[in-house]
């Protein structure tokens, strides 16, 4: 988006503020479709956890995407956004059998990732279609917190537990209609992803009634100039060829699924914040802004780097700043970063903030959550209001202490 438009939006709706560009989301979705255009049955399920605003979900419904959900609440959001149950897959971790049963009763495709729940569910509901999440023990790359396919991960059923898995399926006579894997975010090497895919293909030979294979996602997006990203086009060519070969070997056509989140929405997002104070110490120049890790925690939690632009002075002389928030802890967005000269009152823009920004926001320090705006058809649409004090105390219950 153009800096002038972002600055106008900040002035109209006030920072701190998330702004999402609909056309970028659409382009990323179509880019993925094009990369796998030779797959006859392709289903892209948007990972709701990345950005769960209901207007964003409706945008994906308009694109004919499905949804990947990890909680019953995300399932409810998908249904409220107008998705039919058969367009939603539910892949939880560590939840109760009760929640899985409730989701299954809604007609949503369930995906089970541990032997205990698989046996319990299969014993009670042998005819209900179930997808199984496999842990291929592959380290995809990226931060350890978002790499979920390795041997020490809590996610998925270990590929080494396949004999036990097959015994449960045989004993319960349950209906397995899908296989799934997710190696984690920030895939740096598509060959590693393809290697994990071979493990999934080999596993699939043990199940005769599969309807789909879900390869997860984790496609890396560039965060700064010159940064590497997953080569989606090359992956499309290589995986398509291998998938077609497997279909012939398997003896039937299957649906190929992906569940991208960050890949679809990250680059669409811009987080806008106002500079409260420029503070020079003996060694550092701080730009203190009207937000903190209560609104954007990724730099502190994952060490992620977001390009920061000064929208108010884009052509100013570059100086070195440490950009910090107002939380009563160390919440540093950038250290010793070159940014166009900053003055108090300027609006800063954090790029690539569409994924895991607002969805991980909190009310820490009793601060309000920010607003969200969708830039659609050359117009700004408010899709979430700024919180206020009533929102902060809405569910609190004051009791009398004089009893």
Structure characterization notes:
30% of the residues lie in helices and 24% in strands. It has 403 residues and is α/β, with parallel strands linked by helices. It folds into 2 domains: 22-261, Alpha-Beta Barrel (TIM Barrel); 266-387, Lyase, Ornithine Decarboxylase, Chain A, domain 1 (Beta Barrel). Strands 1, 11, 12, 13, 14, 15, 16, 17 and 18 form a 9-stranded mixed β-sheet that branches. Strand 4, helix 5 and strand 5 form a beta-alpha-beta unit. It is globular. The relative contact order is 0.16.
Helix percentage range: 25-40%
Shape: globular
Estimate nothing, just give the exact number of structural domains: 2
Number of strands: 18
Quote the distance from N terminus to C terminus.
Answer: 58 Å
Counting DSSP H or I runs of 4 or more residues, the number of helices is 12
Quick summary:
This protein is 30% helix and 24% strand. The chain has 403 residues and is of the alpha/beta class.
Protein topology:
Elements: H1 3-13, E1 17-21, H2 22-35, E2 42-47, H3 54-62, E3 66-69, H4 72-80, E4 88-90, H5 97-105, E5 109-112, H6 115-124, E6 130-135, E7 157-158, H7 162-172, E8 176-180, H8 190-204, E9 212-214, H9 232-250, E10 255-258, H10 262-265, E11 269-280, E12 285-289, H11 298-301, E13 308-310, E14 318-324, E15 332-340, E16 347-351, E17 371-376, E18 379-384, H12 389-393
Parallel strand pairs: 1-17, 2-3, 2-10, 3-4, 4-5, 5-6, 6-7, 6-8, 8-9, 9-10, 12-14
Antiparallel strand pairs: 1-11, 11-12, 11-16, 13-16, 14-15, 17-18
Helix pairs in contact: 2-9, 6-7, 8-9
């Amino acid at each position: 988006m153009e800096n002038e438009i972002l600055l106008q939006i900040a002035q109209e709706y006030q920072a701190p503020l998330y702004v999402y560009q609909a056309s970028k989301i659409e382009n990323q979705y179509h880019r993925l479709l094009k990369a796998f255009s030779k797959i006859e049955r392709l289903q892209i399920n948007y990972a709701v956890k990345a950005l769960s605003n209901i207007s964003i979900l409706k945008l994906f419904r308009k694109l004919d995407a499905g949804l990947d959900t990890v909680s019953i609440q995300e399932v409810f959001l998908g249904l409220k956004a107008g998705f039919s149950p058969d367009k939603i897959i539910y892949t939880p971790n560590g939840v109760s059998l009760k929640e899985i049963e409730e989701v299954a009763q809604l007609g949503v495709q369930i995906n089970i990732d541990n032997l205990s729940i698989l046996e319990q569910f299969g014993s009670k509901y042998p005819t209900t279609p179930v997808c199984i999440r496999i842990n291929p023990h592959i380290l995809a790359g990226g931060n350890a917190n978002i790499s979920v396919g390795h041997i020490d991960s809590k996610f998925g059923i270990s590929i080494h537990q396949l004999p036990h898995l097959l015994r449960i399926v045989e004993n319960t006579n349950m209906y397995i209609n899908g296989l799934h894997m997710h190696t984690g975010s920030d895939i740096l090497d598509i060959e590693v992803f393809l290697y994990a895919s071979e493990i999934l293909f080999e596993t699939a030979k043990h199940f005769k009634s599969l309807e789909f294979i879900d390869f997860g996602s984790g496609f890396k997006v560039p965060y700064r100039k010159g940064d590497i990203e997953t080569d989606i086009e090359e992956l499309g060519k290589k995986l398509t060829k291998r998938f077609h070969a497997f279909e012939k070997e398997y003896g039937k056509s299957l649906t190929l699924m992906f569940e991208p989140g960050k890949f679809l929405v990250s680059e669409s997002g811009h987080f806008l914040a106002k500079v409260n104070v420029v503070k020079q110490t003996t060694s550092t120049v701080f730009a203190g802004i009207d937000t903190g890790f209560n609104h954007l925690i990724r730099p502190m939690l994952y060490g992620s780097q977001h390009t920061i632009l000064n929208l108010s002075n884009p052509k100013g002389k570059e100086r070195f700043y440490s950009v910090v928030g107002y939380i009563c802890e160390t919440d540093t967005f950038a250290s010793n970063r070159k940014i166009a000269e900053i003055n108090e009152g300027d609006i800063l823009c954090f790029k690539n903030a569409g994924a895991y920004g607002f969805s991980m926001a909190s009310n820490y320090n009793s601060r309000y959550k920010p607003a969200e705006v969708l830039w659609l058809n050359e117009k700004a649409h408010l899709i979430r209001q700024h919180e206020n004090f009533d929102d902060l105390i809405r569910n609190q219950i004051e009791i009398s202490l004089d009893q």
